[in-house]
Amino acid sequence: MRNALVIGNWKMNGETAANHTLVASLVESLEVSPVGSVEVGICPPAVYLHSVGLQLEGSVVSLGAQNLSEHDAGAYTGEVSAAMLRDVGCHMVIVGHSERRSLYYEDDEQVAAKTLAALRAGLKPVLCVGETLAQRESGEALDVVARQLCAAVSGLEADEFERLVVAYEPVWAIGTGKTASPEQAQEVHAHIRTVLVRVAGVAGQNVQLLYGGSVNADNAAELFAKPDIDGGLIGGASLKANDFIAICRAAAVAG
Length: 255
What we know:
8 strands, 8-stranded parallel beta sheet, 15% strand, TIM Barrel
């Protein structure tokens, strides 16, 4: 049985005082009214990982990062390694987000290397896959997602799939206010599940699959009710405590 998982991706947003208020509200709400078996994580910008991590100590919320280097150490100015993320308390890291692919030209090979780097350090990689609007309109969505997925996981060992999370994020629905319909999202999630089972066998059944793409408090319940959608990778709504908590509660109800 897969637990639901909801992760907040703050992207390049936040400042110390506002972060403290947001995290305090989130932690207090989840302590007063828990969300059962739902796993909750937040991924602030790298400069805030230490301070947010200290605030999360002893809470049910896990700390994650938004990116990492594929290298373990060395002369890579400005980069952050997986070991460094573990050192400041991270349990997970987003890998291959569409903004990293489109704005910083990360290709499938680099995303695969980052996935392996995360696993080597004991982090849970949240592997992002998804198609552009042009690819969806041309009927390539399932092929694109399968290609991105296979490039990153084809070399993994069976036990490494136990720490893998896959997030389907249609590029055309990220930050646009557009959301894939629950049926569209489920179709792709079911395809991802089929590919994972083909590659990893039984282990593929247990990988948590998240939907990311303008998820909010109003549409979360309908999305999470689908059988292969195990939660969400949440962008803008994760910056508002009440909205993010409502999404977590929707995951609990769906579970």
